[in-house]
Specification:
Largest sheet: 4 strands, mixed
Organism: Lentibacillus kimchii
Radius of gyration: 19 Å
Keywords: Hydrolase
Enzyme class: hydrolase
Pfam family, one: NUDIX
Number of domains: 2
Strand content: 35-45%
Order of helices and strands: EEEEEEEHEEEEEHH
Shape: elongated
CATH architecture of the largest domain: Alpha-Beta Complex
InterPro entries: NUDIX_hydrolase-like_dom_sf (IPR015797), NUDIX_hydrolase_CS (IPR020084), NUDIX_hydrolase_dom (IPR000086)
Length: 181
């Protein structure tokens, strides 16, 4: 791995926002040449695959400004500072769907866009969902609609590109591969 190592010689933060920090690094390449790297720093996020007792997957549909369209996705959210991913999973599940579960089961973690971002996504499975009488309020600038789909319906949404993001496609592949439904 060291033969591919790049050494940072200078780093400049050009934006430090609520969700991301953007920096530009000057790096020394393995062959001694130099280059620039534009990087997004992110606290990390959690996605949760909620499956009802009726074997339906709970999704949320929301508008995604970078894409200028709505997508159907599994519930997800950003890690808060110092928060364990399993706590984030439970919080996002309740806020976005009105459901809870005793213990979400960790599936895996992965980098979302390692070519320019350090965001780590933690993926959980929540089965035997229970509705929450008084769910926690979601983000005030978040407008979502809840959908409950069978695995076959979700796969059709993938074909139609209504489901078109990596974490949700991964979730569907996980459920299909393990023949969970």
């Amino acid at each position: 791995m060291k033969k591919f190592m790049e050494t940072t010689t200078q780093s400049e933060t050009i934006y430090d926002g609520r969700i991301v920090k953007v920096q530009v690094d000057d790096v020394m390449l393995p062959d001694g040449k130099t280059s620039k790297r534009e990087l997004i720093k992110h606290a990390g996020a959690v996605g949760i695959i909620p499956v009802t007792k009726a074997n339906k997957i709970v999704f949320v549909e929301q508008f995604r400004k970078p894409l200028e369209k709505s997508l159907v996705e599994i519930p997800a959210g950003k890690l808060e500072k110092g928060e364990e991913p399993s706590v984030t999973a439970l919080r996002e599940l309740e806020e976005e769907t009105g459901y809870t579960v005793n213990t979400p089961r960790f599936i895996t973690s992965f980098y979302t866009s390692p070519g320019f971002a350090d965001e780590m996504m933690y993926l959980y499975l929540a089965e035997d969902l229970e509705p929450v009488d008084y769910p926690a309020a979601g983000d005030e600038d978040e407008f979502i609609e809840i959908l409950e789909l069978t695995l076959d319906e979700a796969k059709q949404y993938v074909r139609e590109q209504r489901i078109h993001d990596a974490k949700t496609n991964y979730a569907i592949l996980y459920l299909e591969t393990l023949e969970r439904m």
